Amino acid sequence: MFFESMHPSWQALLADQRPVLEELENRLLAYQESKDADAPPIAPPMPLVMRAFAADAASIRVLLVGQDPYPTEGHAIGLSFAVAPDCRPLPRSLQNMMKELGSDLPQVTAAGDLLRWQAQGVMLLNRHLTTLVGAAGAHEKLGWSRFTDAAIEALAALHGRQLVALLWGRHAQSLEPLLAGCTVLSAAHPSPLSASRGFFGSRPFSRANEALLANGAKTIDWSC
Fold first, then answer.
1. Which residues of the chain have pLDDT under 50?
2. How do residues 17-50 score in pLDDT, each as one tens digit?
3. CB 49 within 8 A of CB 78
């Protein structure tokens, strides 16, 4: 299910990672089958886990890396920082992202629907693609980073400097060696604990567009 649900371009780029994905999928399915009624469900739901890989790898222009899915029930939809369009209130990190977007680009709508970004070539990738509802970071040691690191390296090799990577917080910034040759824009994480220590005022959205223009690429309409 996981491998087959990726766009064919990703299947070709990550063919050697198929056994890794199958092992992860089997472990998650085994958990679902064996858990009792009180055990927390997996977030996001299994059909949404690989959603970040639905687009053609060749169409990706911006990579935005998150850590792991939202642990709040109903929030995680398989895309880093994103929630369903009808989700209210927005998670605090996403609220801070919208606050910075409104300050950085006052002319755009900043309502929190990041699905519009994905449609324009922004890859919303979590380092760990699953967690458990109510347990942030529950799957940090499951083995996801081996797969997502390979995906980031493949994306960097495919696009080189044409790829703009937004790395927010130390966890995401640790991935910079995998993005050698790409355009990397770093800032603090937008979480309530760190947004005021370098995320607010970092202008990530306008800077990403400036980098895209410098690379001869079309800019992102960050309205959301």
1. none
2. 999 999 999 999 999 988 787 889 999 999 999 9
3. yes
Domain 8-214 has CATH 3.40.50.720: no
pLDDT score, position 37: 78
Could you state, in order of their start, the residue ranges of all structural domains in the chain?
8-214
Residue 95's pLDDT is what?
Answer: 98
Residue in the structure block whose two tokens are 């935005």: 64
Q: Which residues does the annotation mark as catalytic?
A: 68
**Amino acid identity, residue 115?**
L
In 3D space, the residue among 162, 205, 167, 207 whose CA is nearest the CA of residue 186 turns out to be 167
* Token pair for 197: 């220590």
Residue 181 Cα distances to 152, 155, 158, angstroms: 12, 11, 11
The sign of the dihedral angle between the CA atoms of 148, 40, 80, 141 is: negative
**CA distances in angstroms from 78 to 75, 82, 127, 128, listed in the order given:** 9, 8, 11, 10
155 phi-psi bin (left φ>0, alpha ψ -120 to 50, beta other): alpha
Among left, alpha and beta (phi > 0; psi -120 to 50; other), residue 106 is alpha
